[in-house]
Every structure is written in structure tokens, then in C-alpha cells.
What does this fold into?
Amino acid sequence: MRVISGTAGGLKLTSPTGTGTRPTADRVKEALFNILQSHEMLTSGVRVLDLFAGSGALAIEALSRGAAHATLVDKSRPALDALRKNLLHTKLADQATVLPLDVFQALDQLTRQCARFDLVLLDPPYALGLQAKVLERITPLLSAKGMMVAEAASREPLPERVGRCWRIDRRVYGDTALEFFVPEGNDAP
It folds into this structure.
């Protein structure tokens, strides 16, 4: 697992120990970031929320490609150890905030703080069916021109609408689907 492009491009990342984390395949990650780049979602000033962050690879890729700040959420000790090592190794730690919380606790805290994010990345364990539940809770945190991307099992599409957001794209890569959501009124193609 490595950072594909940007200021930390080519650096290897540490994976969490154990089987509790399923890293995004490099080809899926590369496709995701090419799509985000085409939507201009990685420009300076972009604030990223990475839920179920695991190794932090997705947030680190976003930071490496120009995002201003990332908030990474995970409750697993091995994942937190790996993502903190990866942030230090890539020299991106001062652009990141790590929340060692359950995702729902983190979303409650961020909502109370009136936090807003331009890009939300969501990659929960597929078998738990959390995508739609978490997406609904994210919508108040999404900026008007923001985008949410959920990684899900390709055989189980997410709803076309979640809260005040609608799906604008769905890409399938083997067993993995990337589903892109934007708020109503966002004129993203």
C-alpha cells in the first residue's frame, strides 16, 4: 500500500495489524482520486472527513494531492497506531486531526461543533450495513458544494437519495463500488 500521487507520492504506508481493516485496493484508490480530481475536489482549502479511516490511506492521499485538512475517525487501536505512523511518515500530521471514536460518537461531536467538510470518504465494513445509516448522519456536515464518497459492496447498491443528498455516480471495480453523493442544489455533473 502506498501514496499514489502528490507531495507524499510513492511513500509506502503501514497497514493495521489483524484482519479488522480492509485496505482500499490501489486500483480503486487511483480511480477514486482521478474522479475526485476531475470534480476539482482536491483543491487548496478542501476539508476532508475520513470515516472508518483504517490506515488513513484515503485521507493521506487527499492531503498529498492538495487538500487543506483531514479529520480521520477510527476506534480500532491497530488502525489508530497505523494511521498515526502514516501521518508522521508522510509529514502530513499537522494537516490532520485524529478522532479515536466510534463513528456515531464522532459524528455527534462534529455536528455539535458545527463542522463542515467538502469531501467525506466512507469505507465501513461491508457486512454491517452501515453505509446508508452513516451517510444520513453525514449530510448536515457536508458543505453546499461538497461530495460524499461511499465504498460499498458492488452487489448491494446504496439508495439513490440519502438525506438531502443524491447519488450522481456509481463505479464498480470487481466486488467494490464507489458511490458519489452531492447535496441538493450542487450542480456537479
Notes: Helices lie at 26-38, 57-64, 77-89, 103-112, 131-138. The mean pLDDT is 90. The first strand starts at residue 47 and ends at 51. The first helix runs from residue 26 to 38.
